[in-house]
Design a protein that fits this description.
about 200 residues; OB fold (Dihydrolipoamide Acetyltransferase, E2P); alpha+beta; 5-stranded mixed β-barrel
């Protein structure tokens, strides 16, 4: 069976399975990449119903949802190829099998994702709005933050969940190097503006 899994007819599903394991490992070791604020502005755009249907409306972490989708795609693809082999003596060509598995796996994943959202209430209580990150401190991880040139920073919320955001200095002439602790003071879209802790205005905060 393992050798069959590596043949061209099954290769898309083998790749999906490996990616699923990799994402599961990332989520499992707690790198904090699983939570994205997908629900912050979708209501105004009228897409909330679509997210609900996909299983994302319940604040299910995106990496868990993606892992579920890859798993459903893999299972659907293997079942499709096994069925084709039983009926016609050979599996389908991989593009045809991939299309069918994507459709079947996507439908199956709506059920699985919504089920996971119901049995994982801990995520519903720990997911916060992007606005809640304001007035919290974080650390610039890499790059140098300048006006017009944001850097990546890590913010830990009140639940201990890490969020990774892009930050620029609040002051036009400020420069914030990697390793600097900052205070998020305002937001424009997905971009945050921060004051470095070395700023004398923050020493009493």
């Amino acid at each position: 069976m393992f050798a069959q899994f590596l043949t061209p007819a099954y290769l898309p599903f083998a790749i999906a399975f490996v990616v699923m394991l990799g994402i599961g490992l990332i989520e499992g070791v707690g790198l904090g990449l699983g939570h994205f604020d997908l629900d912050a502005d979708v209501a105004a755009d009228g897409h909330a119903g679509v997210l609900d249907w996909l299983g994302l409306g319940g604040e299910l972490p995106i990496l868990i949802w993606l892992t579920s989708l890859l798993g459903c795609f893999t299972v659907a693809g293997i079942a499709l190829q096994q069925g084709a082999s039983a009926l016609w003596g050979a599996p389908l060509a991989w593009p045809l099998a991939s299309g069918g598995a994507l459709l079947a796996g996507g439908l199956l994943n709506t059920v699985v994702a919504n089920g996971l959202a119901r049995i994982m209430p801990g995520f519903e209580t720990s997911v916060i709005s992007t606005e809640d990150l304001l007035r919290r401190r974080g650390t610039v991880l890499e790059g140098v933050a300048r006006r017009g040139s944001p850097a990546r920073a890590k913010i830990v919320d009140q639940f201990g969940q890490a969020h990774f955001v892009m930050v620029e200095p609040h002051n036009d002439t400020a420069v914030i190097p990697a390793g600097e602790t900052v205070l998020l003071v305002r937001r424009h879209g997905t971009l945050f503006f921060a004051l470095p802790d070395r700023d004398t205005l923050l020493q009493s905060i």
